[in-house]
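Appendix B. Raw example, untouched.
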Amino acid sequence: MPGSLLAPFSAIGRGGIKVAAGFGSWGRFMGSAGRSLRHVDVWARLLLGQMARIGVDSVPIALFIATFTGIVLALQASYTFTGAVPLYFVGVLVGKTMMLELGPVLTGLALSGRVGANISAELGTMRVTEQIDALETMAYPPMAYLVVPRVLAGTIMFPAVTLLAIAVGIVAGWITSLQLLDMTTPQFMMGLTLFFLPFDVMFAVIKATSFGFMVTSIGCLYGFQTMGGAEGVGKSTTRAVVVSSMVILVLDAFWAVLLL
């Protein structure tokens, strides 16, 4: 009986230890990556290519999500505000929600699936086929060659893609308001600018930058830790996406508490 009562606490303890161990492993991994920054001649020539793969290639999915998010926000705002709040508050809701929450978070979650999974699968395949070991054998710095350009590219490009997604989402909400809600452009713009603060954009950039850093670093970590052939690659990819998504939600709450 006492054992069954203590079982939930044991599970919580094991989970806490596992999380702490994972955080420690990530910290050591990123410390090694930080030391590899001195090999500028290795990672600098790969950075632009990774920026294109991580950022430019992710634009279509980010804009697709942002477009329909803006449309749904405008429609739901008009439904909620009917008869109670002036309709120009649709612009307030669309603008604030896209900039402060849905723009960065939905873009981050979408890119965690696309970018995080791609990085983990690519590096995991290189690990199980011993390509990373070959780099180490040839005294070629694998962290500088494989990790640093990906993490830097994600940290740089996630904010750019997020800002573009926010802009497209707001435009989609504006067009929806004009076509379906019998609003005028001045009404929508009045709502959009009513409570706008420049810090709203900075807040989105801060969140997106942290999301990009974490998604790419977690993808690299699980890729480097891959074992067990094709099955191991699949497991690492799944873990990278799940952990990245969870970290994005935790960071979302963290930045809200810290900065708002």
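End of appendix B.
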